[in-house]
Design a protein that fits this description.
By secondary structure, this protein is mainly beta. The chain has two helices and 25 strands. The N and C termini lie close together (about 10 Å).
Amino acid sequence: MRKIIASCFIVFLLNSVYGAHPVKDDSSHIEVLLSKQMLSDAGINADFISSFDITSSRHILLSSTNQFYLLGWGGINTIGYKMTDTISSFAFTSDSIMMLIHNKCLCYIDTTGNLIKLHSLPNSEMGISGGKDAMYIYDSNKNLEQCVLYSFNKSGQLDTLFIAPTPITAVVEIDQSLIFSTENCLFAFSLQTQELNTIAIMEKGQKIISIAIDASKHNIYFSTENSVNEITGTTWGTLSSELGGTLKYVDDGLLVFNAGKKFLVRVGGKEKQ
């Protein structure tokens, strides 16, 4: 990424991060929210899964396969108890209820911290994404012959939206459409008309792993393990060929979390490009 200043601010609380000012005359900058060194200093040696989300109190929630971690003012700490089965993914609903894929079950955590089963799922290692009125659950296991995208509505119904021939790696809702990825392709699926359109195709072998949307500008960000890309209107470009991982766009910044490399950064100041 051109013209990036790596700001060495160890900032934890998102409200504080958003108060930081971009470097003058620079188009964008990076703020480090989590690094290997910070984890080492905190005595945490966790193998994180790729899911992360923002809590209602504006902290960052991370997870290993059996333990949640809260990144906030003052550092990172474990939260809740260790689980006996595997956490595959998690996401918050529009009203801030935390839902997770736990082994082959869709569950939520109640106000007392108890894990409550909502629905049995057909497969393990499924992904989950939050929408306005539904949660989207999808097959991301590469060993399946067909991969299904489901919607789970507030009445507790699990409905099939469509079937893909390859694993679905990310799903994001915007307006009345879903933007989703499978292999090296990015698609838009209309929830009203069921119409499917191709948005972008990367080179073969470039697996898209995450999607984020700036809803105010309708800009689409998508990433591989080693790159972050942006679609603005009809223009598609690469923001970075060095960063990569799970994306979330929050307020005015793009968060990039790489679970394997154990870093989480915020890219800010893009509005000046």
